[in-house]
Amino acid sequence: MYDMNKWQHIFKLDPNKEISDDNLEQICDSGTDAIIVGGTDHVTLDGVLHLLSRIRRYVVPVILEISNLDVITPGFDFYYIPMVMNSKDKKWMMDIHHHAVKTYGDVMDWDNVMVEGYCILNEDAKAFQLTNCTIPDEEGVLAYALMAEKMFRLPIFYIEYSGKLGDPALVKKVKQKLDHTLLFYGGGIHTAEEAKQMKENADVVIVGNSIYENFKQALTTVKAVKGEG
Ligand SMILES: CC(C)=CCC/C(C)=C/CC/C(C)=C/CC/C(C)=C/CC/C(C)=C/CC/C(C)=C/CC/C(C)=C/COP(=O)(O)OP(=O)(O)O
Ligand SMILES: O=P(O)(O)OC[C@@H](O)CO
Ligand SMILES: [Mg+2]
């Protein structure tokens, strides 16, 4: 029904943060290609279900990015599963996932499940600290991208700078390594110009915190990446 390969822009909404009905309507009707529901900490099942029911008033596809086992629930169009490639702990790549598949494997619709190979590059991001990441050098990032596509055949490689604008030159080099795996870029995008710049090389840009910090500017990122701004 939805063709993820055509997506260019996604808003990420945090169930742990407040958004008014009016702002939520503008986000869902903005022309963005999808909404991800997710965050790093204090993400609860109640918060997720409440936000899902509010987003479901609109026609936009809605994805649950699973950050902890308690929030797994039916009703989303897609489920994104982060696998943190630059974590020092196997737990964040394999063990939690293994446990979840033991529990849900028989009832999962695998067509709706996409694994995201995450490379988290902002040391100050909560997700970086939680998952005990290490910063790779440029060669290291490029190798993770190749592993995501060629070894694991992941649908998504996600360059994550959560909270900070990343390096567009690095995004460009990563894109040059990938033939099939989609390149997601997220982190620190506030303005239309920043969104447009990252979209020059990423397949999809993700805008999160700016929704809660400068709502009007966040909305302008949609048209910017779609070449309408
Ligand atoms: C019947 C039914 C319910 C069907 C669904 C079945 C299904 C899809 C089951 C899932 C199976 C599965 C393999 C699950 C894996 C579960 C899991 C918890 C995996 C670990 C994920 C992980 C590595 C989490 C760590 C945190 C992290 C990397 C989150 C990713 C998102 C992220 C980086 C958010 C950034 O947060 P942000 O909002 O920027 O942070 P701030 O709060 O600082 O803004
Ligand atoms: O919140 P920001 O910094 O926009 O980052 C978006 C997203 O990549 C977070 O997972
Ligand atoms: Mg956030």
From TrEMBL:
EC number: 2.5.1.n9
GO biological process, one term: glycerophospholipid biosynthetic process
Catalytic reaction list: sn-glycerol 1-phosphate + all-trans-heptaprenyl diphosphate = 3-heptaprenyl-sn-glycero-1-phosphate + diphosphate
Annotated positions binding Mg(2+): 14, 40
Binding site for sn-glycerol 1-phosphate: 12, 158-163, 188, 208-209
Highest taxon in the source lineage: Bacteria
Gene3D superfamilies per UniProt: FMN-linked oxidoreductases
Molecular function GO terms recorded: heptaprenylglyceryl phosphate synthase activity; magnesium ion binding
Pathway membership: Membrane lipid metabolism; glycerophospholipid metabolism
Keywords linked to the UniProt accession: Lipid biosynthesis, Lipid metabolism, Magnesium, Metal-binding, Phospholipid biosynthesis, Phospholipid metabolism, Transferase
Cofactor: Mg(2+)
A Pfam family per the record: PcrB
InterPro entries linked: GGGP/HepGP_synthase_I, GGGP/HepGP_synthase_sf, GGGP_HepGP_synthase
Stated role: Prenyltransferase that catalyzes in vivo the transfer of the heptaprenyl moiety of heptaprenyl pyrophosphate (HepPP; 35 carbon atoms) to the C3 hydroxyl of sn-glycerol-1-phosphate (G1P), producing heptaprenylglyceryl phosphate (HepGP). This reaction is an ether-bond-formation step in the biosynthesis of archaea-type G1P-based membrane lipids found in Bacillales.
Family: Belongs to the GGGP/HepGP synthase family. Group I subfamily.
NCBIfam families reported for this sequence: GGGP-family, PRK04169.1-1, PRK04169.1-3
Subunit structure: Homodimer.
Protein name as it appears in the record: Heptaprenylglyceryl phosphate synthase
Gene behind the chain: pcrB
